[in-house]
Amino acid sequence: SRTTARRPKRTHAHVCARSKVRHRAQRAVVDVDCTKDHFSAMDLAAILNPNSIDAFTHLLSGLSSADNEQREQCERVFESAKADGNGLAMQLVRVLRFNGGETRARETAAVLARRVFTADNGALFAALAQNTQDVVKSELLNALKEESEVKITRKVCDLICEVAAGLMERDERWNELLPFMFGAVSEGGDRLKESALNIFAQLSGYIGESLVPQIATLHGILNACLSSADMPVRVAALRACCAFVEALENPSDCMKFQDLLPAMLQTLVAALQGQDENTAQEALGLFIELAETDPRFVRNHLTQMVETMLSIAEHADLEDGTRTLATEFLVTLTEARDRAPGMMRKVPNFVQRLYNCLVTFLLDIEDDEDWHTAENEEDGGLGQGDLYEVGQECLDRIAIALGPNTVLPACAQTMPALIGDADWKKRHAALIALSQIAEGCVKGMKKDVVGAVQPCLHALATDPHPRVRWAAINGLGQMCTDLGPRLQEKAHTTVLPALLSAMDDAKNPRCQAHAAAATVNFSEDCPPECMQPYLDSLMNKLLTLLQAGNKSVQEAALTALASTADNAQESFVKYYDVVLPYLKNILINANGSEYRMLRAKAVECISLVGMAVGRTRFSQDAREVMNLLMQLQSGGFEDDDQTVQYMLQAWTRLCKCLGDEFIPYLDFVMGPLLKSANLKPDVIVKKRGEEGEEEEEEE
Question: Positive or negative, the Cα torsion across 646, 649, 655, 656?
Answer without folding.
Answer: negative
